[in-house]
C-alpha cells in the first residue's frame, strides 16, 4: 500500500503531541510535549489550536491518492512568515485541488507589544500569501457555525487589538520537528503505533543517540529496483546504526533526499526518489499539508553576539471570591548568559476583571479587560523584574484566562518561554 497521504502529527497543536525536540543545551530527544495558546480580543478569548497547521484552521480535502478522509478543522491556527506563500490550487489538474472552504483569514501586524487587525476576509482560499516580517494571520473555518474558530474570527474588524499568547509545556524545548511512528525507544523496539504504515514504503528515518548529541538520518527509496522498508525493518535499521531511539517522518512520495555531493559544484543532487516522483506527496500538480523535514549543513562559528534568554512567569490565584480584589504578578527573568536590554512585557487582563491598580503599567485604573504593558529595566543575567496588577473579580461565577508575554530582545535565542497563561475562577 502506498502511503503518500499518511497523516502526520501537526506542528504545535493542543492536545496533540510533538515527537522530536531540540533543547536549550543543544541536545535532541524524541517524545511528547504539550502546547497551549489563546487568541484574546478584549474580554473575549478563544483557544489557539496550533501554529502554521492548516488542517486545524480549515477543512483539508480527501487525499486523491490514498482516499483518506478530509480533516475538518474547527479551531484557529496562527500563521507566521515562516510558512511562506502557499499555492493550494493548480489549474492544470482541477481534480487534485486543495481549496480551504468556508474559512476566515484575519491578517494583522505587530505594533510593539500589541497586534493590530488589518483585515478579515472570508474564504474559500486557493492560496495563502507570504506574510511580511511584522505580520501574522489567523485562519479558522466553519464561520456560520457557532463556537468554531471561523465564527469567532468573523467578529473581528480592522483596527481591533488582539493578542496571541502561546507556550510549550516544557520550557527546555527550543525547536520542534513533527514525526510519525516511533520505532525505537531506550534501545528497544517500541510498541506498535496506533497508525502505522502498512507494507514496504519509501521512508525517512531519524535515529538519536542516548545523550541526544548524535543524529543518524536515512532515506530509503522505493521503485527502480528499490523495495522500500516495512516499519519493522526501519526499526532494525535504527538499532543497526547503534541509535537509542528512532522515528519515521512522513514517507512514500514525501521521502526525498537531496545532498551537495563531493566534486559536483555548489548545487545539490537528488539522491533518493520514490515511485518516480520527487517530493510530490500528491503528484507534481499540487502539494498537501506536510510540514516535516531535516536540513543538515556545516555549522559556522557563531558570531560573538550576546544571548539573553528571557523567561516569562505569571502567578494568579486559581480562585477569588466574586467582586473581591486579586493580584496577578508577571515576572521576566533573564536566564542569561548575557545582559538583556529593556523591552515591553504585557499582562492580558482576564475577561470581566476590572483593573484596580495598574502597578505603573499603561492600562488606566478602572478599565475592564485589556492589555497592561510594562517596560522592563536592563536585566543582568539571573535578574528578575516583577510587575503586579491588582484586579477586582466580576460579580457571580466566572472563569477567565490571563496571559503574559514579552517582546523578545533581538538576542533572545528561545521564544518558546516568552509566554505564560493562567486560569482564574471567581464566584
Overview of the molecule:
The structure is a single chain. This protein folds into three domains: 1-7 and 172-297, no CATH class; 35-168, no CATH class; 308-426, ntegrin, alpha v. Chain A, domain 3 (Immunoglobulin-like), CATH 2.60.40. It is 4% helix and 39% strand. It has three helices and 31 strands. It has helices at 54-57, 149-153, 231-240; strands at 20-23, 28-30, 35-41, 44-47, 50-51, 76-79, 86-87, 103-111, 114-122, 127-128, 135-141, 161-162, 166-168, 173-177, 182-185, 188-189, 203-208, 215-220, 222-223, 226-227, 245-248, 257-259, 269-272, 308-315, 319-320, 325-337, 344-357, 368-375, 384-392, 398-406, 419-426. The strands form eight sheets. Strands 24, 25, 26, 27, 28, 29, 30 and 31 form an eight-stranded mixed β-sheet that branches. A six-stranded mixed β-sheet has the order 5-6-11-8-9-12. Strand 15 (182-185) and strand 16 (188-189) form a beta hairpin. The longest helix is centred in the middle third of the chain and has 10 residues, at 231-240.
Amino acid at each position: 500500500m502506498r502511503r503518500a497521504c499518511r497523516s502526520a502529527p501537526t506542528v504545535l497543536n493542543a492536545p496533540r503531541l510533538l515527537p522530536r525536540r531540540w533543547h536549550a543545551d543543544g541536545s535532541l530527544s524524541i517524545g511528547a510535549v504539550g502546547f497551549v495558546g489563546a487568541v484574546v480580543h478584549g474580554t473575549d478569548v478563544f483557544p489557539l489550536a496550533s501554529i502554521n497547521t492548516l488542517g486545524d484552521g480549515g477543512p483539508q480535502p480527501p487525499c486523491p491518492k490514498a482516499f483518506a478522509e478530509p480533516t475538518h478543522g474547527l479551531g484557529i491556527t496562527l500563521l507566521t512568515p515562516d510558512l511562506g506563500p502557499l499555492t493550494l490550487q493548480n489549474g492544470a489538474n482541477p481534480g487534485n485541488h486543495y481549496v480551504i472552504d468556508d474559512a476566515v483569514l484575519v491578517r494583522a501586524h505587530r505594533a510593539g507589544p500589541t497586534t493590530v487587525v488589518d483585515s478579515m476576509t472570508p474564504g474559500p482560499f486557493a492560496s495563502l500569501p507570504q506574510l511580511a516580517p511584522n505580520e501574522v494571520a489567523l485562519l479558522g473555518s466553519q464561520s456560520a457555525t457557532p463556537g468554531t474558530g471561523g465564527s469567532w474570527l468573523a467578529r473581528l474588524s480592522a483596527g481591533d487589538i488582539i493578542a496571541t499568547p502561546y507556550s510549550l509545556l516544557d520550557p527546555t524545548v527550543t525547536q520542534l520537528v513533527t514525526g510519525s511512528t516511533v520505532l525505537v525507544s531506550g534501545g528497544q523496539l517500541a510498541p506498535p503505533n496506533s497508525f502505522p504504515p502498512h507494507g514496504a514504503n519509501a521512508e525517512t528515518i531519524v535515529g538519536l543517540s542516548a545523550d541526544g548529541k548524535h543524529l543518524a538520518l536515512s532515506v530509503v527509496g522505493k521503485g527502480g529496483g528499490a523495495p522500500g522498508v516495512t516499519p519493522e525493518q526501519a526499526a532494525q535499521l535504527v538499532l543497526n546504526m547503534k541509535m537509542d531511539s528512532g522515528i519515521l517522518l512522513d514517507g512514500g512520495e514525501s521521502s526525498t533526499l537531496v545532498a551537495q555531493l563531493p566534486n559536483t559544484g555548489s548545487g545539490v543532487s537528488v539522491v533518493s526518489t520514490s515511485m518516480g516522483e520527487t517530493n510530490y506527496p500528491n503528484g507534481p500538480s499540487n502539494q498537501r499539508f506536510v510540514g516535516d523535514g531535516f536540513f543538515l549543513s556545516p555549522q559556522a562559528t557563531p558570531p560573538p553576539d550576546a544571548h539573553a534568554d528571557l523567561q516569562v512567569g505569571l502567578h494568579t490565584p486559581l480562585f477569588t471570591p466574586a467582586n473581591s480584589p486579586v493580584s496577578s504578578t508577571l515576572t521576566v527573568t533573564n536566564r542569561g548568559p548575557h545582559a538583556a536590554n529593556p523591552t515591553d512585557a504585557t499582562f492580558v487582563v482576564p475577561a470581566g476583571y476590572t483593573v484596580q491598580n495598574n502597578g505603573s503599567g499603561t492600562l488606566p485604573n478602572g478599565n475592564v479587560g485589556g492589555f497592561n504593558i510594562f517596560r522592563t529595566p536592563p536585566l543582568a543575567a539571573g535578574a528578575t523584574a516583577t510587575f503586579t496588577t491588582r484586579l477586582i473579580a466580576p460579580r457571580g461565577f466566572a472563569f477567565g484566562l490571563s496571559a503574559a508575554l514579552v517582546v523578545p530582545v533581538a538576542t533572545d535565542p528561545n521564544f518558546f518561554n516568552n509566554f505564560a497563561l493562567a486560569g482564574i475562577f471567581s464566584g
